[in-house]
Design a protein that fits this description.
By secondary structure, the protein is α+β, with helices and mostly antiparallel strands. The radius of gyration is 16 Å and the shape is globular. It contains 5 helices and 6 strands.
């Protein structure tokens, strides 16, 4: 989808970002203590297995330029992982959109678009649900993207 939007001249933001498609569980301020974030992530996610995910549709966050996103099916397991991160760092101020009760799981497909209709028209003709796995947990600083910690989730092939 990113390549299609870029090829059609609609938006190349995600291709240029240089980071794989993902679902963000939390965003903390740049001044948050890095060692504390890393330790909480290591401890919280240590036994996480790869989580099956299905992107079932498309959506847009409105605003000064709409941001297009793929909609994952929200499961109890996905919500539990989001909550686990929040619980591990209760005194750190998480971005308002990532607080429990406000978080909308998503895979961002574009930067701010003045006309998201063009992006929808480009993507809808070939749309079909996408299944895969959330198979890594990473602590990332961005822009530009800098991976500060990365851990693979175990995967059972049963």
């Amino acid at each position: 989808m990113w390549r299609k939007l870029a090829a059609d001249g609609i938006d190349a933001d995600r291709c240029q970002l240089g980071y794989a498609p993902h679902i963000t569980l939390a965003i903390y301020p740049d001044e948050a203590p890095l060692n504390r974030l890393r330790n909480a992530l290591e401890e919280t996610c240590r036994n996480w297995e790869a989580l099956p995910v299905c992107l079932s549709g498309l959506g847009a966050f409105p605003g000064d330029g709409a941001v297009l996103w793929a909609v994952p099916v929200v499961t109890a397991e996905l919500l539990a992982r989001h909550q686990a991160i929040q619980t591990a760092l209760p005194d750190l101020k998480v971005h308002a959109h990532y607080r429990p009760g406000a978080w909308v799981p998503h895979v961002t497909l574009s930067g701010a678009l003045p006309d998201p209709g063009l992006a929808f028209m480009a993507l809808l003709p070939n749309w079909e649900p996408i299944t895969g796995f959330l198979d890594r947990v990473e602590l990332v600083r961005f822009r530009p993207v800098e991976v500060l910690h990365s851990a693979a989730c175990s995967r059972s092939d049963s």
